[in-house]
Amino acid sequence: MARRTLAIERVRRLEVRTRVIQGAGHVVFVVLCMAVGFVVMATAVPQKRRLAELDNDLLTAKAREREVLAERESAEIEHRALREDPAFLEIHARDRLNYYREGERVLKFRKAE
Questions:
Q1: Quick check: 104 pLDDT over 70?
Q2: H or E segment at 100?
Q3: Among 21, 65, 73, 113, which residue is least crowded by beta carbons within 10 Å?
Q4: Residue 89: CB partners within 8 Å, gap ≥ 6?
Q5: What is d(CA 75, CA 61) in angstroms, rounded to the nearest whole number?
C-alpha cells in the first residue's frame, strides 16, 4: 500500500510540474505578444508623424494654390476689361500716368503691404 501512495504522490508532483510549466509557457507567450506589439507601435509612430507633416504640407499647398488661382482670375478679369471696356482702359491709363481733367479731384489709396 505504501508503494501505491508513493506512486500517486509522484503522479501528483508530475501534474503540478506540468501545470507550472504550462503556466510559464502562457506567461512567455503573453510577454512575446506584448513585445511584438511594442515593436509594431514603435515603427508606426514615426510614420504617423510623417503623415501629419505631409498633411500639413498639403494644406499649405492647397491654400497657396487658391491664392494663385484668385490672382490669376483677377488678372484675367483686368486683361479682359482693358481689351473690351474703353472706360476702364481710360481710367487705368490715367491712373498709371497720373493724368486728371481740369476741375477733377482724384483720390488715391495705397495698398497696405
A1: yes
A2: none
A3: 113
A4: 81, 82
A5: 21
